[in-house]
Amino acid sequence: MQLNATWKCARAVVVEVADGNIYHTDTPWRIIINEQPWGVTDLVETYIDGLEPDTTYRVRYERETDDGITESANVVFVTETESFTLNVRDFGAAGDGERDDTISIQAAIMSCPKDGRVLIPAGDYRIKNLFLTSDMALELAEGATLHARHDRDNLAYLPGNIEGRSGAGYAGTDLLPMGRWEGESMPMFCGVISAMNVHDVTVYGRGVIDGGANADEDNWWHEPKTIRIASRPRMIFLSDCERMDFAGITVRNSPSWNIHPVLSRDLRFLNLTIESPKVSPNTDGLNPESCNNVLIKGCHFSVGDDCIAVKSGKIDMPRELRPACRNLVIEQCHMHDGHGSIVLGSEAAGGIQGLIARNCLFERTDRGLRIKTRRGRGKDSVYGAIQFDHIIMDDVLTPFVVNSFYFCDPDGTSDYVQSREAKPVDDRTPNVASLSFRNIEAKNCHAAAAYITGLPESKVGRLAFHNVHITFRPDARPSVPAMACGVEEMSRRGIIAQHVHKLVLDNVTIEGQDGDELNAIDIDIIER
User: Which part of the chain is the Rhamnogalacturonase A/B/Epimerase-like pectate lyase domain (predicted)?
Assistant: First the structure.
C-alpha cells in the first residue's frame, strides 16, 4: 500500500491511497497531518484542505488490521506558493443570500495579482455570472454557496462565432468561438462561472455552486428545448483555456450541462461532486468537447443525463473549430444515477482518440459505456483507442452500448439515419474503430449484456472483451438498451452484436440470461 500526493495547490492537496480498491477503501483510514489528527476517510482519493502556502507537510494514514496490527503509510510534499489573498468581503460582498454580490466578487477577481487567491468565505452569495482571469486561484470555502440567478432578461449571454481579421481567430481562422450548444456555434447564456482564453487557474474548496434550476415556468428546466433569448447556461464553461484545475467543490442543480470545457488543454477535475435530480433535462455532469489532455479523477456524479459525455462538435461547424477530443483519463470515479456512465458522442464530428477509463464504479445508470453516433456525423468522426479497465457496475440496465443509429436531431428518425440497409460511404459516414474492455464485473443488469450496432457500410472495427463477467437481476426490469428506431424493450438478453469486423470474447461469462449468450449478425471474425 502506498500514498501519493496526486495534486496540490497552495492550500489543499489530493492524497491517493493505492491499495487496489475502486473509489472506496475496504476499511476507513485515520489521517494525521504533521502529527495532528485531521479526520477519517474511506475514499481512495481524498481532498485535504486547511493547509498553508509554501509549507512542508507529512501526511500519514493509519488503521488497524483484523489481527490488531497498525498499518500505516506516509507521503511528504510542499504546498505551492501564494502571493496575496483577496477576500471578497473586502470588496463589498455581503454573502447574506439577498444582495447581488456579482460585481463585488468580480472586482476581487479582476484585481487579483499573479499567483494570488480570491477567497469566498462561508456565506450565501447571490450572483449572475463570474469570469475568471489567468494566473489566479479561486477558493470557495466550506459553507460558501454561490446561488445563481435565473432571470433571463438580466443575464449576459455569449454570441456564437465572431468574425474578425483573417488568421487572427482560433487555429488560424478568422473566427473567435464563443457560445456553443450541442455541437453547434450559437448564442448561449454565460456560465455561472466562465473562463474565456485564460490559463493557469485553480478553482478549489469545499463550497457549492448552485444553479438554482427547477421546472417552474420562469426557470431553466421548463420547456428545456425552447430557446428563449439564448441557449441555457452551463454551470462552468471554459473556452480555449489551458492548465485549469478544479478540485473539491460541489456543483448542483445546473440549468443544463454542469461543466463544459471546449477547445481547451491540460485540464484536471479532481474530487468534484456533481449532482442534479434524476429527472432534470440535459444535466450532463462533465462534457469535454474538442479538448486535449483531460484528467477526471475521484469525482462523484448523480445527474439527470449522462455523467461524462465526450464530444467534438457537429459536421456543419468549421473543421478547425471541431478538432478531435484526445488523451482523456477517467479514474477512481463514482457514477451513481444517469443515462450513461461514460458516453462518447453523439456530437463528435471531430472524432475521439485516446480515452482510458479505469478503476471506476458505475451504479444505477441506464448504461455503462455508451457510444452514440449516426450517419451525418462525418468521416472525421472516428472513435479510436478507447479502453476500459477494472470497472465495477451494479444495477446498470445495459453495461455496453454502441449505437450507430442514435435518433437525435430533427432528422434523427429519417430514413438516411435509421435505415438498416447499407448506404454509400461518403464524407458524412462515421466510424467506431477500436474498443477494449478488460477486467469488468457487471452485476444485477437488466436489459442486455451488451447491445452493439455498427453501420452496415462502416462496421465497428475491433471490439474486444477480456475477463468480463455479467450477471442479471432475477427481477430484471425490461428497458430499451439503445435510443434508435425499432429497438424495443428487452430484459435478460445476452450480447447482441451487429455489423462488427472483429469481435474478441476472451474469458467472458454471462449468467442469468434468457436465450443465447451471443446473438451475432454480420460479424466477420469472432475470436474466443
Answer: 86-129
Residue 124: pLDDT band (50, 70, 90) is very high
Q: Per residue in 38-76, is it b (16+ CB within 10 Å) or e — as a string?
A: beebebbbbbbbebebeeebebbbebeeeeeeeeebebe
Q: Which three cell numbers mark 47?
A: 481532498
In the structure grid, which three cell numbers stand for residue 289, read together? 468537447
| pLDDT tens digits for range 384-428 | 999 999 999 999 999 999 999 999 889 999 999 999 999 999 999
Q: Find out whether 88 and 112 touch, Cβ atoms under 8 Å.
A: no
Question: Of 147, 300, 334, 339, which is the active-site residue?
Answer: 339
Average pLDDT over all residues of the chain: 97
Model pTM greater than 0.85? yes
Q: Is 305 a catalytic residue?
A: yes
Cis peptide before 346 (omega within 30 of 0): yes
Comparing C-alpha atoms, which of 415, 470, 422 is closest to residue 448? 470
Answer yes or no: 240 catalytic: no
Query: Of residues 305, 306, 337, 380, which has the active-site annotation?
Result: 305
In which element (H, E) is residue 30 found?
A: strand 24-33
